[in-house]
Design goal:
The complex is a heterodimer.
Chain A: H1 2-15, H2 21-26, E1 28-29, H3 35-44, E2 51-52, H4 64-86, H5 95-121, H6 144-169, H7 184-218, H8 223-235
Parallel strand pairs in A: 1-2
Helix pairs in contact in A: 4-5, 4-6, 5-8, 6-7
Chain B: H1 5-15, H2 18-24, H3 42-70, H4 77-103, E1 109-112, E2 115-117, H5 125-130, E3 136-137, E4 140-141, H6 155-182, H7 189-221, H8 226-236
Antiparallel strand pairs in B: 1-2, 3-4
Helix pairs in contact in B: 3-4, 3-6, 6-7
Classes of the chains: A mainly alpha, B mainly alpha.
The complex binds fe (ii) ion.
């Protein structure tokens, strides 16, 4: 009996790769098919209640990139927030640009939180210890066009990565050695909640940037006036 | 056009020649030379930026607490909601202070004649996110949310006590900010009033709320039935 428990403990460790140390020590996780056995033994003897029932259907470490991505959404949300704040200053005074960038900040924040909730549904223990080291880069003076171009860059990178994570969880990997990452629910979530809104965001921002570029190219001398009008357009 | 071709094209347009650069970037600095309305002092601004960082730190700490309660093995949706909401609130506080600095012309600080920069985007948000599970925050030591098996407490109660510790630290920090900004040689009357009326008001009300919750749950947890008390209290938070 003891050896079974030791074995299960290690399975628990593997599936709970993200748990912080204290959490691992105090909570042992069962495998996808052992909830009844473990909890059943607890019912016969309350000193034998070491195991938590788990919602995991695949290895917990499969969600590594998903967890990392949600942390990065939090980081990007602050990057957008700081960028947005620049356009609220008296030096720039572009409420329309402030608004569109603040909208991106809120969207990234809300989706970051929502992803944490989503992963908790799969039995994944979220950890903040994994995040990209990429620093918030929107420092200093950004002009209006640069700020939107920067936003295009951020959104596109996030979209590309969401696609990669989707592939990892989708049937595209079924013939793959790594098919253990297959999770139709997560793939669907990524499509609906992350990828589709990002496609719209990228297209919208790219449209703005190209408008500004074309206006500037044709009539660069009146560009301050163009920006003023464009800002009003963004405020709507 | 490849992925970043567009970006390259745009930045190229904006920096090709100095003539173009001046039109692509409105040169606002020259507009304010000699008619500077900006009067907030550096000491006060620097301390405010520190406070912004603390609000962000508190926000991320609450986020890590929310994530803990969202786990399937912990399953306290009420506490998760409470702390997800707190995280968003703290983020709002950070932005409110940024907006205040902006209103007073001090979000972007003048580095030299032609360059304006904020130090706030230099915050290493990535590290703040990674450190959000640490038990030492803002000079306060918090308790591990998972109690030892024989401890007469619950995750919920520990979390509320941690939250109160955190808020008390934030209140202390705002009081210090008031002291920094109110003294001689320049009294920031309006900012201090704003901090007192908006921020301290919310702090004291929030602390009273947490203290009440600690009291209510604490009384139930003291004796038998701690886990059931935690379960019931959680549902009340939904
Ligand atoms: Fe706050």
């Amino acid at each position: 009996m003891k050896s079974v428990f030791v074995a299960l403990f290690f399975v628990g460790l593997a599936t709970a790769e993200f748990d912080n140390v204290n959490f691992i020590q105090r909570h042992k996780r069962d495998t996808p098919s052992t909830c009844e056995a473990n909890i059943g033994s607890c019912c016969k003897d309350e000193t034998n209640c070491e195991f938590d029932c788990s919602s995991l259907i695949i290895d917990g470490s499969s969600y590594n990139d998903f967890v990392k991505y949600s942390n990065d959404m939090i980081i990007r949300s602050f990057e957008y927030l700081f960028l947005s704040a620049q356009f609220g200053t008296h030096l720039k005074d572009r409420p329309g640009f402030e608004k569109i960038l603040h909208g991106l900040a809120d969207e990234a924040w809300n989706k970051g939180l929502d992803m944490i909730k989503e992963s908790s549904k799969r039995g994944v223990s979220h950890t903040f210890k994994v995040a990209n080291d990429e620093r918030v880069s929107a420092h200093g003076d950004y002009n209006e066009v640069e700020a939107l171009a920067k936003a295009v860059e951020i959104e596109k990178k996030l979209l590309v990565r969401a696609n990669d994570i989707h592939r990892h969880h989708s049937h595209a990997t079924l013939n793959d050695e790594k098919a253990k990452g297959y999770d139709a629910g997560i793939a669907h979530y990524l499509e609906e909640e992350i990828i589709e809104p990002k496609i719209d965001a990228v297209r919208n921002l790219v449209g703005h940037v190209n408008d500004l570029k074309n206006i500037f190219k044709k009539d660069s001398s009146i560009f301050p006036m163009s920006l003023y009008l464009f800002d009003q357009h963004l405020q709507k | 056009m490849n992925k970043f071709g567009l970006l390259v094209a745009v930045t190229a347009i904006c920096s090709l020649s100095s003539v173009l650069a001046e039109t692509c970037t409105r040169d606002a600095n020259s507009l304010f030379r000699g008619i500077d309305f900006v009067d907030m002092r550096d000491e006060c601004v620097t301390e405010t930026e520190e406070q912004i960082k603390k609000e962000i730190t508190a926000s991320l700490k609450y986020l890590s607490m929310a994530a803990y309660f969202a786990k399937d093995s912990v399953n306290r949706p009420g506490f998760a909601k409470l702390f997800f909401d707190s995280a968003s609130e703290e983020r709002e506080h950070a932005y409110k202070l940024i907006e205040y600095l902006s209103m007073r012309g001090r979000y972007l600080r003048q580095k030299d004649k032609n360059s304006w920069k904020s130090t706030i985007p230099n915050f290493d948000i990535s590290s703040l996110v990674k450190d959000s599970e640490n038990l030492n925050v803002m000079g306060v030591t918090l308790s591990d949310l998972t109690p030892a098996a024989d401890a007469k407490t619950t995750s919920g109660l520990i979390a509320l006590q941690n939250a109160l510790k955190l808020e008390t630290a934030v209140t202390k920090s705002i009081r210090n900010l008031v002291v920094k900004c109110e003294g001689e040689p320049f009294n920031h009357y309006h900012f201090v009033d704003y901090l007192t009326a908006e921020f301290l008001e919310e702090q004291y009300k929030g602390q009273r709320d947490l203290a009440g919750k600690i009291s209510t749950l604490g009384k139930m947890v003291q004796n038998q039935g701690a886990e059931l008390a935690d379960f019931l209290f959680d549902k009340q938070l939904l």
